[in-house]
Structure formats: structure tokens, C-alpha cells
Amino acid sequence: MAITVTTGSAQTTSGPTRVPYVTLPADYVLSKDTAGEALYTNIGAPVTQPNSLRLAVSNIADVYTKAGVPTIAGQRTSGKQILVQINEVWKVTDAAVATFVPYYLPIQAHMVLRLPDDDQITSSLVATLIQRLEGALQHAAGTTLADGVNTALHGIVRF
């Protein structure tokens, strides 16, 4: 068997470098633009494998609600919620088997950040937070992100 999974995405990666998912206007076009939300659609994707990227930012009246964190008098309680969402369809094929019937897999990934409106929160701190989130899947030195994802795919959540 020579099973191949194609994502239909224009994204490529190389080593630890993050390659932008959206290459405007070559690969993606803005297909929805409303206050606080933008949807980019991959115009080069096969019709059977649509993929898109959604970015949304919304205000939160009280980010401390249900957080279990006390506030001090006069402290702002407002915040922001940032959503990054990828929707893809992966195609599974096997060129080595003539009778293999290709099939499709709906894939969705999203990250939600809830952040208080505070001057001490910088983009660098949030970037480090995102790296720690990704690193949470890598449970030991020398493991890769793929190793950690493999563990989670097998239902293991404790290291």
C-alpha cells in the first residue's frame, strides 16, 4: 500500500520555521469581512478539498468570570477573545491499489485565546504562551510535536 493524504492546503512547512498559512493574494482571498471577523478561502484548493482560515476577535465584558482569580479595586475586567481556525478536507488515496476508492476527511483545528485587557500583556508574552500550548504535547526532551500528537491520537492524555 502507498496511501497518500493530501490536505488541499497551500501551506508548506520546513523544520521549526512557521510558514504563513495565508499567502495573499496568490493562494487565499478574503471571502468574509465583518467587524471582528475575517475568513480567507484558498482559491487554489480542489473543489473537493476546500480549505479556509478564520480569524476573529471579540470583546469580553468580564474575563475574570469563572476564572477563579480575584480582582483588585479599580482593575479592568474586560478582555479579548481571539480565535484562529483552520478548516480543511484531506483526501486519502492509494496509487498502488487500482481498486482503492479515494475518500475524504473533514479536519478542523482552532485555538482560542482569552486575554484580559491589561497593558502588561504583550505580543511577545502571548507568542510564548502559544509556544507553551504547542509544547504541552511534547512531554519529554527530544520528543517532537508529531510524537506528542501521536500519543494524544491514541487516547493517552497523561504522560
Protein model, in words:
With 159 residues, the chain is mainly beta. The chain has two domains: 3-115, no CATH class; 122-159, no CATH class. It is built from two helices and six strands, in the order ββββββαα. It has helices at 123-135, 145-153; strands spanning 3-6, 28-34, 37-42, 52-60, 79-94, 103-116. Strand 5 (79-94) and strand 6 (103-116) form a beta hairpin. It is extended and about 70 Å long. The two termini are 33 Å apart.
Series of H and E elements: EEEEEEHH
Strand content: 35-45%
Q: Quote the average pLDDT.
A: 84
Ends apart, CA distance between termini: 33 Å
Low-confidence parts: 11-15
Q: Any idea what the shape is?
A: extended
The count of DSSP E runs of length 2 or more, i.e. the number of strands, is 6
Number of helices: 2
Secondary structural class = mainly beta
Number of domains: 2
Radius of gyration: 20 Å
Q: Largest sheet at a glance?
A: 6 strands, antiparallel
Helix content: 10-25%
